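Hi W., the shikimate-3-phosphate complex you wanted:
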Amino acid sequence: MSGELSLDFRGQGPLRGRTRVPGDKSISHRALLLGGLAEGTSTVTGLGDGDDIVRTRLALEMMGIEFSGDQIHGGRSRLREPERPLDMGNSGTGTRLLAGVLSSLPFLSVLIGDHSIHRRPMDRIAVPLREMGARIDGRDNGRLAPLVIRGGELHGIDYTPPMASAQVKSAILLAGLAANGETVIREAIATRRHTEEMMLLAGAAISTTPGPTDYVVRLAASELSPFSLDVPGDPSQAAFFVVAASLVAGSEVTVENVYVGPGRAGFLDVLLRMGADITLHECGPNAADILVRSAPLHATEIAGIEIPSLIDEVPILAVAAACAEGTTTIRDARELRVKESDRIATITSELGALGAIVRPTEDGLIIEGTGLSPRGAVHSHGVHRSAMARAIASLVGDATLTVHGFEAVSTSWPTFSRDLGALQ
Ligand code: S3P
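Structure:
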């Protein structure tokens, strides 16, 4: 795909039809890692096909795990010391979750990635993994990638992460699978639960006391059994089409088979609060077809315990807020500053370039619903969600918008433009 995309959807009319989005990225990473650890052959269909997922699969292949079609031929005993550094590209989830697995393996490994990965904080996983017994070093006193991990015998810990992060919880749980004694994680605000759900599926001795606050996970060392899984669609990707269909008058779109389980569907609650016309039709465990019709939106407040459940949807929710009546405030979202880019800064500058009035705060954004006038050229800054949010913004405009660096979408959704075009 070329690095520049000119988007000209003037007069293209409403979005209509049924569509699908790529398999959920969070579930796909975990399916590969747990399938790699489970002794035997697991079958996983519907994996996401973005670069992040490819990197996790390649890393496992470099350590001896074999893949054939939808099958993963896994087993802890198959895993070998990789000869070369494992290059995780742009993937924070892949890097941090794999670090958890590597901490429990009796060999040396090196995790590298692109320039964004080498700037993102890794101490959030390195600190608890070291506490469990892993030896982890890296740049800046072990805080930044490349990470050098010498794994081995671990012991369980009782840990309260200082930030709401499913990646931190998952890295510790993946290490805890092979740790002596119990691993306990206490979350002040519950984050997405894919790791817990999928470890249960693979027969791990894991239990949870659910609740939006004081959520506790307990895990004992476990050998995993092979499992079968069909990965549902990614709600973070569905959000782009849900917002697009809400904003473009006369639209009616169904996004099929989307994961709407705990910790991921916050963006739907927010859009419903804003007046969106959204109906869910359950189509499987924690999965639904999402029917959305265009509707006028009004402002809302987004804060507190719902933030982790929509942290990746803020760029597209900001587009919705700019087109809604009134002033939308987003608070308690400091984590946005340590994503692929500082999302508070990029949303402010990029939405500003599209004509919105946006004020950044330390932990969020204030967005005036004065509408967008996308025209001219903007840049994705290599961030997939920025590129896609710009594309959706262009739908509400009356001019051509050029997005430089549009190839960033390949991180999570290589066929995004084609799939959007098919709804027009
Ligand atoms: C993810 C957790 C979130 C999210 C990321 C995927 C996961 O990150 O932003 O895209 O799969 O666990 P944090 O855990 O850092 O909040």
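The chain has two domains: 4-22+233-421, 25-230.

W.
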